[in-house]
Each structure stands twice: as structure tokens, then as C-alpha cells.
Design brief:
By secondary structure, the protein is α+β, with helices and mostly antiparallel strands. It contains nine helices and 21 strands.
Length: 375
């Protein structure tokens, strides 16, 4: 997490609020951000059993406005965005001309424009790429005066229902969004998140972020949660993190994100890097992102090598840590496609020590999204 110096860091709208609660602040994505309050383990477990409030205001919130916005965005993403109904959200990938992943993002059809949420560490590069690739008739707004909060956990809906938000955001289902009001404050709320739990992401004007965060954490179900637990939660949920499990050298099939390649777009084959991406679909990539159960109690970390019997490097760990829910170490890694089947034995070498691992199904911990029941 501490990948930067403290020089020239930007401050979150909730920066002083975090410090007032005793948060340990660290550099992340160009911002000073809370990594923990009472401890990663406790915060992780609280989110899995109650409701945790995360400050993700470092992420980029963008509006893409104008006729043909969805069709234009489809040129550089493989998602079927033109078929996205109002109030619906789609996960997709921002692709380079060679099919490499530049970022992953959420796209919402608000009914008036497209609302995009991109990763904090890549948002300025994303904006530049979008501006270069999209036609001049479209307007791209960066909502720099908006904060973004994520309320996650099995009691997130019950907690949010206690605030007098109109209309009721708890009527949303997973991957749905809408516009709401709270005490005269406009909120954009989606039922989404990156922990594997039910939850909501709330866009709020920065000037009102402290008021909303204070109201939420005053509820008995809600505690503030830092970056440390957010990372362990998303790892348990099998969710990749850009810059670690994805980068411009990785294509969607390799990243185990084939679900983001919609059938209609595969058939059209008219998105950036389609030739290279579709050449790997569905199982023709040389490598694949997989989950690992780690023998013993020692976690394996990003950068550790997967090796064959001769000690030759054949893959790389991209995320790893101890799972508080499962009480064992888990990891994600890229390995040759022929070694990606569940149950396959994989050896990881870390600091000169060889550690036995087994390819595991992901998510490691089941998702608990509030999905609409099919009739």
C-alpha cells in the first residue's frame, strides 16, 4: 500500500475526519489515505458481518455526455454499452489498441449521460486516453468536487434505510443506480462495491462528505474501514486490482475476465485490440490468472515466482495475503494455461523458500450480492 512518498500528496475531502478517528494514513494513488483504524483483521471481519464505510474518493468519477456516447465508448471497451438500460451498471475494460488492459471501470447509464468510475491511480491517464479516442461532439466531465463512499456488508442496506434518503435506495438491486436526495443534498447511489458483500457506493458533493460519513458511522452497524481491509476483502472475493493483477501487458482472457467480453461485441469484433483479444478467446491464452490456496500459515506476496520442478520461473504472484474469513493464506497468480485447472499443484518460491500451493476456485469466499430473483 505504501508505494509513494508523502511529498505532494493530495488530500481527500474526508482527510481530517479520518485523522480525527485515529486512522493511520498512508500514501496511495497520489493521496493520503486511511489504511486502518483499529486494525485490518478486525475491520475485515466487521465488514463481513456488519457494515463497513470506505472512503474511495480517490477514484475518478466521470460524466460522458452527448449523442452516441455509448457507441463511441464501445470502440475502446468490449462491453455491450449501447444495450445498457437506464439505471443499469456494467463492468467493462478500457483497452489499448493491442488489447492490453489500461483500466477496469464501471459504466452507468443514468438516462441522461454515462457515468464512469475509474481507478484512482490511472484516472488522469484514462481521461487523456478517452479525450484522445472519443469524438469531439462528446463532453467528458471529471467530477473533482464529488466524494465517493462505499458502504459494504450484510447490514449495509439496513443501515442505509435508517437515513431519510428519498426515494429508498434499498429498492435497488445489484448493478443498479439512481439519483437520490438526503436533507436536500443530491446523492448518486449504486448497489455495487468491491468486497463481495452487498453494499452501496454513494457519490456526494465533497462539501457534504463529512456530514454524510458522520451520519453513517453514528449508526450501530457501521464502522469506518481502511485500505488494508478493502484489499483483503477484494482478494477473498477473487476481484482483481488494477496495477497488480492487471496491466497494459495483460489481455482480458489472460486476466480471467472473459465474462467482460459480451457475445454481441465478440461477434462484432470492432473494439480496440479485438483481433488480439479474440485470438485468445475462450481458452487459447498462454497464461491465466488463477486463485491459490497456500499450504501452511505463511502468506505469499506479490512478485513471488511460480516455479517448475527445475526451479525455472513459469509464473508470478500478483496478489496475496492471509484470509481472515478462511483463516489461511490465499493468493492470485498468473500461471501457464495448462496448469490453471482447479486442484493443480503449484510451487511458489519466496525468499529462497519453496511453498506448496493448489489452484483454487474463485471467489475464495462466496459473493453475497443483492440480485434480482429470476422468475
Amino acid at each position: 500500500m505504501m508505494s509513494e512518498t508523502t511529498d505532494n500528496l493530495q488530500q481527500l475531502p474526508l482527510g481530517d475526519w479520518h485523522r480525527g478517528l485515529g486512522a493511520r494514513m498512508v500514501p496511495f494513488a497520489g493521496y493520503e489515505m486511511p489504511v486502518q483504524y483499529e486494525g485490518v483483521m478486525a475491520e475485515h471481519i466487521w465488514t463481513r458481518t456488519e457494515a463497513g464505510l470506505f472512503d474511495v474518493s480517490h477514484m475518478g468519477q466521470l460524466q460522458l455526455i452527448g449523442e452516441g456516447a455509448a457507441d463511441a465508448l464501445e470502440r475502446i471497451t468490449p462491453g455491450n454499452l449501447s444495450a445498457l438500460a437506464p439505471s443499469k451498471i456494467r463492468y467493462t475494460l478500457l483497452l489499448a489498441e493491442d488489447g492490453g488492459i489500461l483500466d477496469d471501470l464501471m459504466v452507468t447509464n443514468t438516462g441522461h449521460h454515462l457515468y464512469l468510475v475509474v481507478n484512482g491511480a490511472t484516472k488522469h491517464d484514462d481521461i487523456a486516453y478517452l479525450q484522445a479516442q472519443l469524438p469531439d461532439n462528446l463532453m467528458l466531465n471529471h467530477l473533482e468536487d464529488a466524494a465517493l463512499l462505499a458502504l459494504q456488508g450484510p447490514k449495509a442496506a439496513a443501515a442505509l434505510a435508517k437515513l431519510d434518503i428519498q426515494p429508498l435506495p434499498t429498492d435497488l438491486y445489484f448493478m443498479e443506480a439512481g439519483s437520490f436526495q438526503w436533507n436536500g443534498i443530491p446523492l448518486g447511489i449504486s448497489r455495487s462495491g468491491y468486497t463481495g458483500e452487498d453494499g452501496f457506493e454513494i457519490s456526494v458533493p465533497a462539501e457534504h462528505a463529512v456530514t454524510l460519513a458522520t451520519a453513517l458511522t453514528a449508526l450501530e452497524e457501521v464502522r469506518p474501514i481502511g485500505l488494508g481491509a478493502r484489499d483483503s476483502l477484494r482478494l477473498e472475493a477473487g476481484l482483481p486490482l488494477y496495477g497488480h493483477d492487471m496491466n497494459p501487458d495483460i489481455l482480458p482472457v489472460e486476466a480471467n475476465l472473459s465474462f467482460a467480453l459480451s457475445k454481441a461485441r465478440r461477434e462484432e469484433g470492432n473494439f480496440a485490440g479485438a483481433k488480439q483479444v479474440l485470438a485468445q478467446y475462450p481458452d487459447k491464452a498462454a497464461q491465466k490468472r488463477i486463485g491459490l490456496f497456500v499450504d501452511g500459515r505463511q502468506p505469499i506476496r506479490e512478485g513471488a515466482a511460480a516455479v517448475d520442478a527445475a526451479g525455472t520461473t513459469i509464473g508470478t504472484v500478483t496478489s496475496g495475503g492471509f484470509s481472515p474469513t478462511l483463516q489461511r493464506p490465499i493468493a492470485m497468480a498468473y500461471v501457464p494455461m495448462e496448469l490453471s485447472e482447479t486442484g493443480t499443484a503449484i510451487t511458489i518460491e519466496q525468499r529462497g523458500k519453496k511453498i506448496a500451493c493448489t489452484v483454487a476456485d474463485m471467489p475464495f469466499v462466496s459473493h453475497h450480492y443483492h440480485r434480482k430473483t429470476k422468475p
